[in-house]
Amino acid sequence: MVTYTVNLFTTLDGFGTGSVAYWGKDGPELREWHARTFFGGASQTLVFGANTYRMMAHYAAQLAEDANFRSLSAARKIVISRTLEEPLTWANSMLIAENALDAVPRLKAEAPTPLYSHGSISMNRALLAAGLVDRLEVMVFPIITGASGENPILASLPDIDLKLVESRLFDGRVQQLVYLPTAR
């Protein structure tokens, strides 16, 4: 059985969506790590919900000459959605038209490589609540967006214990916290 890892970006006050990529707080270390683990993760299968798939497919089409997006387009991608329909336009994307709570346990049992999901906040929030996330990577950006913040990443979750197994600081300001979650 493979692991299911969720990678979420958040402000200090817990919001997952901003008007500018990385809330304008990225730097070379963070970009290099993201290029290696997300864009260049050949030893994993990417899992997206419908909204993240649409956004990333749009960027991939616009930035087709960018090395990161060429690599991402070549990667194996699974899209879990009951709203999208075949055929998916982004190369190497397979649609699973069912509920993520049903699909992910089967994928974990059958997938040849670990499953890695970036974003897809509402889908991954449900999977976290159901105890189906094996590893939670949270990137905390040094900004509070109380007035403009959107999409709280951990809203309405049950109590979940987190065991910190790794932490890292990128560019002297962005904190990565890696947890093993256990539902209470």
How would you describe this structure to a colleague?
The structure is a single chain. By secondary structure, the protein is α/β, with parallel strands linked by helices. The protein has a single domain, classed as Dihydrofolate Reductase, subunit A (3-Layer(aba) Sandwich), CATH 3.40.430. It is 29% helix and 32% strand. It has five helices and ten strands. It has helices at 28-39, 50-62, 67-74, 100-110, 121-129, and strands at 4-11, 15-17, 45-49, 77-80, 93-96, 115-118, 135-141, 150-152, 160-170, 174-183. Strand 9 and strand 10 form a beta hairpin. The longest helix is centred in the N-terminal third of the chain and has 13 residues, at 50-62. The chain is globular and about 40 Å long.
Q: Can you tell me the CATH architecture? A: 3-Layer(aba) Sandwich
The fraction of residues in strands falls at 25-35%
Helix vs. strand class: alpha/beta
Low-confidence stretches: none
User: At the third CATH level, what is the topology name?
Assistant: Dihydrofolate Reductase, subunit A
Our count of domains comes out at 1
Number of helices: 5
Q: Helix-strand pattern, N to C? A: EEHEHHEEHEHEEEE
The radius of gyration is: 16 Å
Total count of strands: 10
| Fraction of helical residues | 25-40%
- Gross morphology: globular
Name the average pLDDT. 93
Distance between the termini: 23 Å
| Strand adjacency order, main sheet | 5-4-3-6-1-7-10-9
User: What is the name of the CATH superfamily?
Assistant: Dihydrofolate Reductase, subunit A
- CATH C-level class: Alpha Beta
How can the largest sheet be summarized?
8 strands, mixed
